[in-house]
Amino acid sequence: MTELISRLQNAVGAAHVLDAVEDQAPYLRDWLGKYHGTALAVVRPGSTAEVAAVMAACAAARVAVVPQGGHTSLSGGATPDASGQAIVLSLSRMNRIRKIDPIGQTVVVDAGAVLAKVQDAARDAGLLFPLSLGSEGSCTVGGNLAANAGGVAVLRYGVMRELTLGLEVVLPDGRIWDGLRALRKDNTGYALRDLFIGSEGTLGIITGAVLKLFAQPTARATAFVAVADAAAALKLLRLSRSHCGDRLTAFEFLTSATLDMILRQIPDTRLPFDALPSAAVLIELSDISDEPTLAARLETTLADAMAEGLVSDAVVAQDGTQAKAFWRVRESVSEALVREGKALKHDIAVPVAEIADFVKVMDAAVDAALPGIRPMVFGHLGDGNLHYNLMRPLAMTEDAFYGHGPRITRLVHDEITRRRGSISAEHGIGQLRMSEMPLCKPPLELELMQQLKRTLDPHGLMNPGKLLPNV
């Protein structure tokens, strides 16, 4: 492979082709430490033209390419396998904010731009890029696009696919598709953009994007609300929508067990209630009105909910500091889970109206299958995305618990499939769930995806071992 390494060095500069093991190490292990791989080289191009040159060289040598952004994947989607025969293509140097259009409310960015940087650039222009994730300080736009990221504001603004107008993509053979159009209406054939969003780097390398911006809210109102269960939370969601319309920006649900875990594992978190509730909802409204008016609307909504018996307690944040403290609880879930121990994690989606029944049925099913198992359930209730995580029974070792993992996960995913839901709402399939795709996708749907993959990537060089089996 000496000739390939030489071509890669000529394309991006020798300093940006890492072939020493110690230099490659940060790129070869996923964020959770679950997946480890090796690579022929780690290549760090600085422009779309350099990405194209790298792809052309790899295509000629029939060498696979693993795209990598902020390296925050939770499904092993950006980690190479152990063969050492692929290159890792890191977009970390491609981090420019190319252009902001305040009139058209768009921003053009490199795929390696960190999400928080895009948010800051929009804010500096008096606008908002609404995608908000716990990893926003390190995840990149390219990774967000590859996984069709969601986050806490999907209820109002939608997922990444809905926030994107155009893309720039380098194809597996090195050709560049320039689809960087800032058009909100364009009815000229197939929406090629949507093929690459959510494709997890298996069809090409996203190098740039045109993203939608929005008016920057001038007022926010946040409340922590105690409810009896998911059924009550769904009724509160319906009431909140009818009272608040599209001001309803976030509606996050957490069970009592999840809240208790956060309080135990993250010492600086606090709940605004006298006692641990059976479940809770974190509600946020945003608008371009004044904050007292928005807070009054939220208070009226919660008063009506309390009168209907949907809410047992509620606290509206009195200032930004208290609102941040409320969000600190929600944002601490992932950290608390890591401290609590290994979990069977399920990033699932079901029709919103079925969430309460799903949780009730699933909790009973997993407890019958493994008595003492501890569901830690939280998520974006308004868009149907739940993180249905399961912790080991307290008397069981982690190794023994993981031995039951395939059986328990099959129970969860079979129920999801029965309800026409999704086994991956926002984390992606990666290598974590790839083998399960034939179990949850109709054969024709899987066949069509495989045909698209073979058409765009006939030699199977793009992110092999991810998303689709048997290609």
Describe the structure concisely.
The protein is of the alpha+beta class. Helices cover 36% and strands 20% of the residues. The chain has four domains: 2-90, Uridine Diphospho-n-acetylenolpyruvylglucosamine Reductase, domain 2 (2-Layer Sandwich), CATH 3.30.43.10; 97-215, Uridine Diphospho-n-acetylenolpyruvylglucosamine Reductase, domain 3 (2-Layer Sandwich); 219-334, Alpha-Beta Plaits; 341-429, Alpha-Beta Plaits (2-Layer Sandwich), CATH 3.30.70.2740.
What can you see in these coordinates?
- This is FAD-binding oxidoreductase.
- It comes from Bradyrhizobium denitrificans.
- Residues 35-216 form the FAD-binding PCMH-type domain.
- By secondary structure, the protein is an alpha+beta fold.
- The chain folds into 4 domains: 2-90, Uridine Diphospho-n-acetylenolpyruvylglucosamine Reductase, domain 2, CATH 3.30.43.10; 97-215, 2-Layer Sandwich (Uridine Diphospho-n-acetylenolpyruvylglucosamine Reductase, domain 3); 219-334, Alpha-Beta Plaits (2-Layer Sandwich); 341-429, 2-Layer Sandwich (Alpha-Beta Plaits).
- 36% of the residues lie in helices and 20% in strands.
- The strands form 4 sheets. Strands 12, 13, 14, 15, 16, 17, 18 and 19 form an 8-stranded antiparallel β-sheet that branches.
- A hairpin with a 4-residue loop joins strand 18 (374-380) and strand 19.
- Helix 1 (2-12) runs antiparallel to helix 3, helix 9 crosses helix 12 (333-340) and helix 13 (355-369) runs antiparallel to helix 15.
- It starts with a helix and ends in a 15-residue tail after the last helix.
- The mean pLDDT is 95.
